[in-house]
Write a structure and sequence with these properties.
The protein is mainly α. The protein has helices spanning 2-23, 26-62, 69-84, 95-119, 123-126, 129-164, 168-174, 185-191. It is elongated, with a radius of gyration of 24 Å.
């Protein structure tokens, strides 16, 4: 009898705790946290796709004997810097690490944009089918990066609204669900534009 009463009391307690956690946003934090992680993984996948394209682009451009070495060097250095940054799950919760990561990716975007602008001055590169194919792949990758980044921005926004709103902010404090860093407006404006690719010039 006593054992049955204790079991019933435990069930009531667990049920009440479940309702309490649900009402205070605990389950929603779990869901939104997983969404941000998933969105972040896609951002990383697309950045890696771009990083993998760069050696082929550089190798093709190097075939142009008179090509500006400074422009090539900046692309190579930007890629090396970005790929040297250790990205861990904690990057999502560390504003400084996140800022460093996005700055490095912004440098790659800037260097690649400059490279593609400069190649317009080299007719042999414009006539090189392998290089043109790489440009198309790069443009597609930049577009996918923009889409993935926008999804991440939306996921983090939903998570952060929950973390800052009452009463779910109390749950955030209790379970250490801190506000996540996001792409800055200034950085987003800089890197949301894919490199200009113009196939009409002769």
């Amino acid at each position: 009898m006593k054992s049955s009463f204790t079991r019933s009391l435990m069930l009531v307690f667990v049920g009440a705790l479940s309702l309490l956690l649900t009402g205070c946003g605990y389950n929603q934090f779990q869901s939104l946290d997983e969404q941000t992680k998933s969105a972040w993984s896609e951002v990383l996948n697309q950045y890696q796709r771009r990083a993998d394209l760069i050696p082929n682009i550089v190798a093709t451009v190097k075939g142009e004997a008179s090509f500006e070495q400074d422009t090539l060097t900046k692309v190579i250095e930007a890629r090396a810097k970005a790929t040297s940054i250790q990205v861990t799950p904690e990057t999502l919760n560390n504003p400084e690490a996140f800022k460093k990561f996005q700055a490095a990716q912004g440098e790659i975007s800037s260097a690649l944009s400059r490279l593609l602008v400069v190649t317009e001055n080299y007719p042999s590169l414009k006539a090189n089918q392998a290089f043109q194919d790489l440009r198309v792949q790069l443009e597609g990758t930049e577009n996918r990066i923009t889409v993935a980044r926008n999804r991440y921005i939306q996921a983090v926004q939903s998570y952060n609204v929950l973390a800052r709103s009452f009463p779910s902010n109390l749950t955030a404090m209790i379970f250490s669900y801190g506000v996540k860093p996001n792409f800055t407006v200034q950085n987003e404006a800089q890197i949301s534009l894919p490199p200009a690719v113009n196939f009409d010039k002769k």
